[in-house]
Amino acid sequence: MTKGSQHNSGTSFTSLVGDLASDANELLRQEVALTKLEVQYELRKAKTAAMALGVGIGVAILGGMLLMLMVVHLLAALTVVPLWGCYGIVGSGLVVLGGVWLAVAKATANKLGVVPAGTAERINESVQWLTQQTRSDRRSTRAVKISPTPVRP
Description:
Helices cover 83% and strands 0% of the residues.
């Protein structure tokens, strides 16, 4: 009788492990499907936001152009300057304003460091040190003691 009970518990254990593996597999498939749906939902939201941003920028640009036309005609109505002169004055002012913005942007971009200060120097020092170590390894067969290079703050 002992053999029969061991055989039954072995079969049920195998069945239990098989069911567990099947459930884990199904759970994994469901998690992948849920993740896919969540990513699609987030992409839809991002697409909607990008479209709203694009429309907003377009409307703002159109409004800005109309305001500039208004300023030109207001200047023409309040002064004795001909209409073409008013367009020239407003256009020149916009060119100067744009140039100032470009200069500020360039100065800000020049201050940005793609590589943190001192990093390029440390990399060059490491390359030189490795080159020296490699050359000394080729010249002699003795082992070279490797010492770390000091890191400067």
